[in-house]
Specification:
The chain contains eight helices and four strands. It is an alpha/beta fold and 197 residues long. The chain has a four-stranded parallel sheet, with helices on both faces. The model has no long low-confidence stretch (mean pLDDT 88).
Length: 197
Amino acid sequence: MLIRAYLRASITEQDAQRAKEELKAFGTKFDHRIAGYYIENQSGTKLERLELNKLIEDSEAGDVLLIEKMDRLTRLPWGEWKTLKARIMAKGLVIVVADQPMTHAVFSSGEQNSITLALTEFMLDLGAAMARDDYETRHKRQAQGIAKAEGKYRGRQPNLALHHDILDQLTLGRSYSQIQEKLGCSRATIAKVVKVA
């Protein structure tokens, strides 16, 4: 059994690696070392995520997909969550959520019985539904705040200095990967600049 940790943050301004030490300590607590960290800045509302796909592809039956909280894995609508969960289960991965002790049973020496498995699956589904609800509630409140501001809110303004630096790097013939490394921005930001330019 290999443990593969998935760390996600929505935007590049957030630190996706923030929970790395916590997950490392979690593995140590159960006398397991984490075999790999899959880290990305991508919304949990997106079904297709490069690093998550890579984690699933790299895994074998019985491996553990370790996450800090359920919302790090998904903020997907119910139907898309079922699709993602089916892919994970078809690969034979076991989902362990650090803050949900019910999911830790895979680390105990005894066999998991059908009741424990059913409760674990229920907890994962409940966590997924709550993560989506939290996402929708925050966006609803944000829309209400914008409406209340009566046109004063103009949305998040683009980082013009970063856009200028991206254009400079592109004119120098740099690849997206080189630009990402040099400027610490996402591929999506580079693509957005290219589209506008």
